[in-house]
Amino acid sequence: MRVTQGCFSFLPDLTDEQITAQVQYCLDRGWAVNIEFTDDPHPRNTYWDMWGLPMFDLRDAAGIMRELADCRRIYGDRYIRISGFDSTHGWESVRISFIVNRPKQEPGFRLDRQETVGRNLRYATKSYATGRPEGERYQP
Amino acid sequence: MMEAAAQLGSTDTVPVDAIDLRREFEDVEIAPVLAQLDRELVGLAPVKTRIREIASLLLVERIRQKMGLATTFPTLHMSFTGNPGTGKTTVALRMAGILHRLGFVRRGHVISVTRDDLVGQYIGHTAPKTKEVLKKAMGGVLFIDEAYYLYRPENERDYGQEAIEILLQIMEQQREDLVVILAGYGDRMEKFFQSNPGFRSRIGHHIDFPDYSGGELLTIAELMLEGQNYRFTPEARAAFERYIAVRRTQPLFSNARSIRNALDRIRLRQANRLVSRLDRVLTSAEVTSIEAADVLASRVFNRPEAVEMQP
Question: Which residues in chain A touch residue B107, judged by CB atoms under 8 angstroms apart?
């Protein structure tokens, strides 16, 4: 099951050229661009691991694309996303976030039902991938 | 091919066999760039020649693209060597603008760094620091002033070598994204290149900045004064010509920089002269003109060797 999080996630995966254009859009607006990765695709997993520090004061997307290439080389089997943080007064938040890399196989989620007092049901979503330890989840 | 032609706004079918060179020349707006360079930089013939060559190359590459021939991105990394005050930094800062207008770099900004910005203080500090700077310079020009300080042969545990290796790697791999300009005094750069042969071969343009002649220095002085709304009176001009001749023979002469400093001191003396007589009405001509006395009061003329040289 294809994970859809952030911008463009219902479109086909962006090509490197398209990613470059999006990153350049962020830089032209003075946003700090950040690369993050994770292998826990649960939708409530907000805090992904950071690939280095957020990149401030850059002018051209080439530097970020190089970092992305480095990140893919090491964590190519995980989810990688790029986000742009707008520090201007009144915004001070992430303005854009999109997935730029995903595992080859996305096994999807299981819905767990737990019966509790008074015939109530509690629901939980669990990724099939998280059954294995961190770092081995998307390896063949 | 089709796309390339469409981008360049050509209506001809591709590939074309013949191209109007003049129209092409006017299309890329090289002429104004070169004219501005000639106007604003005095002397520096080797530098101007090289920029003209690079500009011509751009033109030819565009034409080759239209004709469907193979095009390769040229190596644009440069090394500027020359004595103090010969305009290395000035040209490097201007080079970014020129390369941008010629379409060789995408953004045209300059990141000016020295050893301190690239080399870290402890193990593991250098690589992130150098990469950070390189990322900032992407799409523009990275200007490394006094590049020979990167390499310290006397300390074998120096982190400079690490910075050099990262730099070389990026210079090779991302030639389209970044132009690196190294600058420094001639003899020390020579030593630097000898101990880092990889650098020399990765730099496409080694440009030597010659010392300015007396006449060029005078032109520079007049340009500087013009920019500040001052001018020499004819006598002051003659006196300054003599000043340059004397100053050049003295130690620690650093070309245009010495001239700028001399002009700053001359302006001080001129201001002092004007303020010494308070009870009068000043005209703008008086405020803008520099008299011979302002120049001749310089300490340079009082040194023993200067006295001998006076006619």
Answer: 59-60
* Bond prior to B32 in cis (omega within 30° of 0): no
ipTM above 0.90, yes or no: no
Q: What is the pLDDT of residues B90-105, one digit of tens each?
A: 888 888 888 888 788 8
Mean pLDDT of A104-117: 92
Look at residue B271 in the predicted model and tell me its pLDDT: 92
| Contact residues on chain A for B178, CB-CB shorter than 8 A | 62
Q: Determine the angle formed by the axes of helices B126-137 and A62-75, rounding to 10 degrees.
A: 130
pLDDT of residue B252: 85
Short-list A94, A93, A82, A86, CA closest to A20: A82
Give a yes or no: residue A115 inside a domain.
no
Residue B171 has pLDDT above 60, yes or no: yes
CB contact under 8 A, B177 and A62: yes
Q: How far is the C-alpha of B170 from the C-alpha of B137, rounded, in Å?
A: 11
Spell out which residues of chain B touch residue A61, defining contact as CB-CB under 8 Å: 138-139
Spatial contact of B12 and B24, defined as CB atoms under 8 Å apart:
no
Quote the strand ranges of B83-178, DSSP E. 110-113, 141-145
Element holding B202 (H helix, E strand): helix B197-202
Has residue A35 been placed in a domain?
Answer: yes
Size of interface A-B (CB pairs under 8 A): 35
Pick the residue with more confidence: B59 or A29? A29
Q: Helix, strand, or coil here: A54? A: coil
SS3 B103: coil
Token pair for B211: 């010392």
> Which domains does chain B show, CATH number per domain?
1-72 (no CATH), 74-210 (3.40.50.300), 214-309 (1.10.8.60)
- Residue A102 included in any domain: yes
Of the candidates A55, A59, A67, the beta carbon closest to that of B139 is on A59
Domain span at residue A71 reads 16-107
Residue A112, beta-bridge partner list = A124
User: What's the structural domain count of chain A?
Assistant: 1
Confidence check: pLDDT of B10 > 50? no
CATH number of the domain that A44 lies in?
3.30.190.10
Q: Which residues of A touch B139 (CB under 8 A)?
A: 59-62
Give residues with Cβ within 8 angstroms of B170, minimum separation 6. Answer: B134, B178
Per the structure block, which two tokens stand in for B131?
A: 């990469």
Q: Do A60 and B174 touch (CB under 8 A)?
A: no
Identify whether A117 is part of a domain.
no
Per-residue pLDDT tens digits for B222-240:
989 998 999 899 999 999 9
pLDDT of residue B155: 81
Q: Report the C-alpha gap between B115 and B28 in whole angstroms.
A: 37
